[in-house]
Design goal:
The complex is a heterodimer. Chain A is mostly helical. Helix content of chain A is 71%, strand content 4%. The radius of gyration of chain A is 24 Å and the shape is flat. In chain A, 24% of the residues are buried. The longest helix of chain B is centred in the middle third of the chain and has 16 residues, at 174-189. In chain B, α7 (174-189) links the parallel β7 (162-166) and β8 (194-198). In chain B, α5 (115-128) packs across α6 (144-156) and α6 (144-156) packs parallel to α7 (174-189). In chain B, the strands form two sheets. A six-stranded mixed beta sheet of chain B has the order 6-7-8-3-9-10. A four-stranded antiparallel beta sheet of chain B has the order 2-1-4-5, with no helix packed on it. Chain B starts with a strand and ends with a helix. Chain B is α/β, with parallel strands linked by helices. The chains are: A mainly alpha, B alpha/beta. Chains A and B meet through α8 and α9 of A and α2, α4, α5 and α6 of B. Bound molecules: adenosine-5'-diphosphate and magnesium ion. Adenosine-5'-diphosphate binds at residues 11, 22, 40, 42-48 of chain B. Magnesium ion binds at residues 46-47, 166-167 of chain B.
């Protein structure tokens, strides 16, 4: 059950999207999200959709994988859509001669909101599917590096983030195992009042925490034996650098962004 | 390669309470290219001793030399760290990255090795442990034996002269155990690495050039496997096992047969039994 959670699953293949500098991808994602929220008419919506689809195509990750990523927020999408359709003021929709509480304006708004949410998920998934957590945290570290001069421990933050991501599946697996072990001994996590259920979690959380601390201890020793010494003279296997492909991608996105902004405010 | 002189160690050295020495007057040495197995009951101080070999712990008394460098001397700190690598019991707790090759690159990255050189080392290390085909996989989806081989590759990429294995097979299934032991033997035989293997499996210890047995913080036996394992009675008293064939011969001898008492492998045993029956 718990294993179904997939967080920022990286797809280890090669594609133009994989080859982009993580910094480029991060910045362009932010830019693209702004564009998605600015798009408000047919042409601009079409533009951001086209660009999102282009990115998905270039990532070489199967469409089915992207669609699966929608599952957790499907409820939110449907819920907001229904609310919009029924609660927006405007001309009522007539069906078979009857007037329904739905409005045309609501339908359009619902469509727009749903499109925005879906594009948002697809665009962020395109980033996480094509960027390994290490590359991602490297990118964030480099983007934050101006703040390092102000005393922000950027390297340590990035390291913490990538180790946290690394241990998510391990700890989920462990939670699963402990839950099963406690259930086998008659623990009951699913019935009773809220307070009872919260209390029932204690025999699960305590072993989980103890084991997490032991893991942290082991990991620290293992990292030290592999000459870990902080960030000052560290190099990288895949040194990130801004190349021609990044320049190309930036130009395309900026062009799309400019056109979207112009059309939104001119039309 | 590694040499300890009158090494003593107590975990509570800073506190005022009475010192309890986990290591007591240890004289241990491994020469370059040698394969030494360390045996001992749980809690006898094997891991504590191993942590002295790369300066993770510093002696409370006595000295540890690694390639002639005193581990207490701070100028040698990094030289010692990178010349003695360590592989631990739980493969999950020594993997830091979410992609195999990025994990293997961790040590050379820490040492500031240039990118192209890291790439070379990573590829070579992964080929040595036979994990090159899975270099872009996520470690948490690998089997225990595969994870442990990734951990070994991560240490090889540091290019140490010696690798200390602290019960590397204790959490693995028989197949994973085989894979790891074969990798260790390959490192010794083909790469001529110095190997210290701490283990609970006598069948693994038999493959070593020398076996060291520890008991309550002291070294009680230190000889070639044939000699150590012929002392069946003493080993049993220390709470240790002997390889199954050795035990078989020991019991047969007790029952009146005349077999050599230094038999370690199934083949040897079969040959001797055949000779006896003729
Ligand atoms: N971090 C520690 N702090 C205090 N005591 C420890 C610590 N680690 C191990 N010990 C104690 O040192 C002794 C030897 O432990 P260890 O070297 O791990 O044994 P082994 O690896 O042979 O099982 C044990 O009695 C253990 O309780
Ligand atoms: Mg131990």
């Amino acid at each position: 059950m718990l294993k179904d959670i997939t967080l920022g699953q990286y797809f280890p293949i090669d594609s133009p999207m994989h080859r982009l500098d993580p910094r480029t991808k991060l910045i362009l994602l932010v830019l693209h999200i702004v564009a998605i929220f600015l798009a408000n008419n047919a042409i601009t919506c079409g533009l951001v959709t086209a660009l999102t689809l282009l990115v998905m195509l270039l990532s070489r990750v199967p469409l089915a994988t992207y669609l699966r990523g929608l599952k957790p927020i499907l409820f939110v999408i449907v819920f907001t859509a229904v609310l919009n359709i029924f609660l927006t003021a405007g001309t009522k929709i007539e069906l078979f001669g009857y007037q329904t509480p739905m409005t045309w304006e609501g339908l359009v708004l619902a469509g727009k909101m749903a499109l925005r949410l879906v594009l948002l998920i697809f665009a962020s998934a395109a980033l996480t599917y094509t960027t390994s957590p290490i590359a991602l945290t490297d990118g964030i570290e480099k983007l934050l590096s101006p703040f390092a001069k102000l005393g922000l421990p950027t390297f340590e933050l990035a390291m913490m983030m990538s180790i946290a991501i690394r241990f998510i599946p391990t700890l989920i697996e462990e939670t699963d195992k402990i839950m099963k072990a406690q259930k086998a001994r008659g623990a009951d996590f699913e019935s009773g009042s809220l307070i009872r259920r919260v209390k029932a979690l204690a025999p699960m959380l305590i072993p989980l925490f103890i084991s997490a601390f032991r893991r942290a201890d082991d990991l620290a020793v293992a990292m030290e034996s592999r000459c870990y010494q902080g960030g000052n003279r560290r190099t990288r296997l895949n040194e990130i650098h801004f190349a021609g492909i990044d320049l190309g991608a930036t130009c395309i996105f900026l062009l799309f962004f400019a056109v979207t902004v112009a059309l939104r405010f001119l039309l | 390669m590694i040499k300890t002189e009158h090494l003593r160690y107590a975990y509570n050295a800073a506190e005022s309470e009475e010192l309890k020495f986990v290591l007591d007057d240890i004289d241990f040495s491994v020469s370059a290219g040698e394969f030494v197995a360390v045996l001992g009951h749980n809690g006898c101080g094997k891991s504590t001793l191993a942590k002295h070999f790369n300066g993770l712990l510093l002696p409370s008394g006595g000295t540890v030399y690694v390639s002639g460098m005193d581990t207490k001397n701070e100028t040698y700190y990094w030289d010692i760290r990178k010349s003695v690598g360590m592989v631990f019991q739980n493969p999950d707790n020594q993997i830091v990255a979410t992609v195999v090759e990025e994990d293997v690159a961790f040590a050379p990255e820490n040492l500031g090795v240039p990118s192209e050189e890291i790439r070379k080392r990573v590829d070579e290390a992964l080929k040595t442990v036979d994990m090159y085909a899975l270099r872009r996989h996520a470690p948490h989806l690998l089997s225990g034996g595969q994870k442990q081989r990734v951990a070994i590759a991560g240490v090889i990429a540091m290019e140490p002269k010696c690798i200390v294995f602290d019960e590397p097979t204790a959490m693995l299934d028989p197949k994973g155990r085989r894979e790891v032991i074969d990798t260790i033997l390959k490192l010794k035989n083909e790469k001529h690495m110095t190997v210290v293997l701490i283990t609970h499996y006598m069948e693994e210890a038999v493959k070593a050039d020398r076996v060291v047995v520890m008991h309550k913080g002291k070294i009680v036996m230190n000889d070639v496997p044939k000699k150590v394992f012929s002392e069946v009675k003493q080993l049993k008293n220390l709470g240790l096992d002997v390889p199954q064939v050795t035990e078989l011969c020991y019991l047969l001898n007790k029952a009146g047969c005349s077999l050599p008492n230094d038999i370690l492998t199934v083949e040897e045993c079969a040959d001797e039994l055949e000779r006896l029956l003729q």
